[in-house]
Amino acid sequence: MSHGFDLNDPLICEGIIGDGCGGGRLFMVKENTLKAYDPMTKNSRVLLEDIEKPISISKKACIVTIICESERVEFDLSEMRKV
What we know:
It is a single chain. This protein is an all-beta fold. Helix content is about 0%, strand content about 50%. The protein has strands at about 10-15, 25-30, 35-40, 45-50, 55-60, 65-70, 70-75, 80. Strand 3 (about 35-40) and strand 4 (about 45-50) form a beta hairpin. The relative contact order is 0.20.
C-alpha cells in the first residue's frame, strides 16, 4: 500500500518518476472516472469521466491505458485528452 492505496488493485497504477508525464502520481479509475492523485499535495484531479466497465489500468510514458470489457481507452497526459 502507498498513501492508503492498494497498488495491487487492477484499477490503480503508479506513475514512475522519469517515465514521461505524471511521474510519482497515482492513477485510478473509481466510479467510472479516471483520476490522478498527487501524494505530495494530497490533491486529486478528474481526468476523464464515463468509463464503462473498467477492468484494469496501466501507464507508459504519457499514456494511461484503461482496459474495459468492450473497449480500450487511452488518455494522453501531455495533451490532457482521450486519444
